């Protein structure tokens, strides 16, 4: 399988800490040594760093870890190949333009019996089921909204219906972003956590590293991190359920289909506190 | 304006030497300090490094210069903004998927009265005339070839006709690649050189750096470099004429509309020698 990492923040934030933990799973503390990639949005623009080599000993990963690129939406992936050879063309995340926005996608899982699905004008360049499902998703979106839509919440609800169909074909854990919204969809393994004031300390599971977010942030910062497995061992991560989707904008959970959603009332300090236990 | 750099090679080759010269023009020996980018193809896959900061003091540019990424098709660009603010979304090169291939484009020049041109399903995300003209080009290609074409030479001849139309709207120097072919189109400033055995030495104009290609290559290597201005001061670069296009595949010039083309008979040792004078 693979591992996913996503971030949504209300102010440009670097993901060096979380990425430092993730890349150790790319051949060191984890078996995901078949390539890695990370896409940073800056406004409507983005830049992606990719390498078909293991992230744990990638010079480019070293740069990404040490060079703080600040972003409000990030999607990252480390790969353990199942479908498609180990090569750059099969390395996540994948990006396509739709409605004058860049859409970036990363997938964890494996699908079957999807090959005859129509992908519209979007064609997969590589051989992965992941890129194919992304192209199919883009095709479905374009069919549903031939013109750029205005209600993006409705759009992501439609994406969720498409993800439900993909989940019928296997394991489909996904991160999707257009630079403003970051959506996660879960089949089996996906966790998220929202960090906000009062900030505390956190320690990575995969690396001897502790950060005091108090020193790294301002009181107004709101940062959500999404990952296949929790990256820290001293924070409470929200585990997503099968078929659950979560939509984040500027760090906040703004939509989803989880029962827990009604409890996640960020505005209420009491519950905010509860969430930090 | 901006500066372009492209490479086509028959074996995966790093472009560190040429890139080292180019990035000095990004704020040091040249005024092109409004961002830079470089796309490396590896098979059908590609990776792009981009930075809206000046290349001459970019940490990412340092990595690209020191970390030899070997590729058979490279497109790079350093920007001096005219249309569109200095930002990542306006930083070249731009990439779109068409016919199951990734197409990468970089432009030097400035266009006028193009805004009402139809771009088909391809929409520009940023504000540059460059990205817009690329989207229009992709739209024209898709209109002409709704299904993936087989005769790519015919396709690039069609691209040339589109470039002729763009040239009517201003200065349009362009590099375009699908990972196998690298095409250059000239309005005013574009040079190229093909290096092959017997290899010699070359010295950069913009940096104290000399390379002995003899030591860096094998006798079968064929590498073409395309640039807005020659990068070396001790080699003979071929200057392209207005309206001239050149198509390279695996380092070789395989098509073009230049009178000089008939003289460029690489198969003949005599003329090969002549071209090295």
Automatic annotation (TrEMBL), chains A, B:
Q: Which GO terms describe its molecular function?
A: glycosyltransferase activity
Enzyme class comes to transferase
User: Matching Pfam families, A to Z?
Assistant: GATase_4 (PF13230)
EC number(s) of the enzyme?
Answer: 2.4.2.-
The answer to whether the entry has keyword Transferase is yes
Location of the Glutamine amidotransferase type-2 domain: 2-251
The alphabetical list of record keywords is:
Glutamine amidotransferase, Glycosyltransferase, Transferase
- Name of the protein in its database record: Glutamine amidotransferase YafJ
Species assigned in the record? Vibrio marisflavi CECT 7928
Phylogenetic classification of the source organism: Bacteria, Pseudomonadati, Pseudomonadota, Gammaproteobacteria, Vibrionales
**Per UniProt, what is the name of the gene that codes for the protein in this document?**
yafJ
